[in-house]
Structure formats: structure tokens, C-alpha cells
Amino acid sequence: MLRIQIRVVMLEATQAVELEPGVVLPPGNYTGTETRTGLATASGDVSWTKPEYKIKLTADQLANMDATYTENLISDEIDVTKFVRSGELAVT
Question: What's the per-residue H, E or C state across 30-69?
Fold first, then answer.
């Protein structure tokens, strides 16, 4: 049986983080989600994947970060897992 756990977390950037070329997340705290997928094993335990992290930013926030793709955009959910794993973003 497949299980999915999603929880709201706070992600902290202590310094600017370049999310993609030219789009820089300023230092601060951001609401995000942590998602893990689990699969039941034969022994009845659950084997979980490493968590993945995403933040949702509004078009205005992205425009302030110099994103060029904000036309007709309300918000965008950005996968920041690699920044959490590298330590550039901390789960608080």
C-alpha cells in the first residue's frame, strides 16, 4: 500500500539562494511543504523516501526576484529539495 505524508514546514534562507539562473530568493522565512512517500513492506513496516520540499511563491514575489515568466501567473510551486539537502535552506 502506498502512503503519502505532506506537512507544512517553515524554510529559512539565511542568505540569498539562486533558485534558477537570475531568480534569487532573498533571506527570510518561507512557508513550504515536506512530502514523503511510503510503501508498505512484507513485514508490515513502511519504507519512506527521503522528503521533498516545495515553496509556493506569488507572481509578485517572483517578479521582485527578477523572474521573467510571471505574466498571467498567480503563483508557482518551486521544488527546493536540492537547496534543503545542500544546507542553503533550513527546515525550522
Answer: EEEEEEEEEEECCCCCEEECCCEEEEEEEHHHHHHCCCCC
Question: Which 8-state DSSP code applies to residue 80?
Answer: -
d(CA 23, CA 39): 36
Residues in the chain: 92
CA distance 89 to 92: 9
Write the single-letter amino acid at 5.
Q
Q: Structure pTM?
A: 0.86
Read off the pLDDT of residues 1-16 as tens digits, 9 standing for 90 and up: 789 999 999 999 999 9
